[in-house]
Specification:
Number of domains: 1
Order of helices and strands: EHEEEEHHEE
Shape: globular
CATH architecture: 4-Layer Sandwich
Distance between the termini: 33 Å
Number of strands: 7
CATH superfamily: Aminohydrolase, N-terminal nucleophile (Ntn) domain
Oligomer: single chain
Radius of gyration: 15 Å
């Protein structure tokens, strides 16, 4: 079970996050920053220990993901996704690059994720339909 956290226009206390989330992902901790956006990932390696590092990047997209996509190999085949790793994270990222948010229709499993698009300056967040992997967010005011 991994742990993810993110923030826009509020600096995360990374040392505190590492301390508080360590039990969720002792294998690796990493943070991605772009301007005022931060995405932080604590990894517990289950699938593809070498190829599933996060945050994962594809061109202008960056993902942090917690969960498991049980049918990710089927999603690759269905959409002709050319993946370099065995990681379900890469499957999600490539499916999102090809299909946008509609990629969620094909994902079977439990997950919470955030995908940042640097070109559009947009953050997409989602969780599995059953809420097995919860996703909490807080928004103060409205920013465009």
């Amino acid at each position: 079970m991994c742990g993810i956290a993110g923030s826009i226009r509020h600096r995360l206390d990374i040392p505190l996050l590492i301390k508080d989330l360590y039990h969720r992902g002792p294998d690796e901790q990493a943070t991605f920053e772009d301007g005022t956006l931060q995405l932080h990932h604590h990894r517990l390696s289950i699938l593809d220990a070498a190829g599933g590092r996060q945050p994962m990047h594809l061109e202008h997209l960056t993902i942090i993901f917690n969960g498991e996509i049980y049918n990710h190999l089927d999603v690759r085949k269905k959409h002709g996704l050319d993946c370099k790793t065995n990681s379900d994270t890469e499957t999600i990222l490539k499916a999102y690059a090809k299909l946008g948010s509609a990629c969620l229709d094909d994902l079977g499993g439990m997950f919470a994720l955030a995908i940042y698009d640097r070109q559009k300056n947009e953050l997409f967040i989602a969780r599995d339909r059953a809420g097995k992997k919860p996703l909490y967010y807080f928004m103060y005011g409205y920013y465009k």
